TrEMBL record:
<dbReference type="InterPro" id="IPR052709">
    <property type="entry name" value="Transposase-MT_Hybrid"/>
</dbReference>
<dbReference type="InterPro" id="IPR036397">
    <property type="entry name" value="RNaseH_sf"/>
</dbReference>
<protein>
    <submittedName>
        <fullName>Transposase</fullName>
    </submittedName>
</protein>
<dbReference type="GO" id="GO:0003676">
    <property type="term" value="F:nucleic acid binding"/>
</dbReference>
Amino acid sequence: MMMMFEPDARLRRPPNENITKVEELVREDRQTTIRQLVHDASVSSGTIETILHQHLGLRRVCSKLVPHLLSLEQKNRPIQFCLSMLLKYSKPDSRRHSEVITGDETWVYFYDMPPKQQSSKWIFEDEVPKQFPNDSWRSASECSQFSSPREDFLNL
């Protein structure tokens, strides 16, 4: 005697109420973890991962430090200036290079960057990850350094 089993249509497919619950939890807190979702939704981690990736189309992205959002023109301006200076002072008889003052600046930030896991967020398929500077990165100090081959410049 052979027994026939009807395939269960719900196998490997989480109920709609679980999908809705997980979506609400993620929309409330984009930085929530799978462990926290398992606790809050009372379902297994495998089910949570299936809901997040297959049903909701979510992916996890990490924020990154973008200290300055420069346009292409702003990025090219220092390069063009340096090239013009090289052309101007590259002549063998030019002694003006001893009058060139160079400078450099360093930004020192007064905070500890959060670990990668803490700064990651869930984003939906139709969203683009933001790359704006974080407000906490704005508390900074600028240090400038100048140098010149001429000693009399340093005694001003």
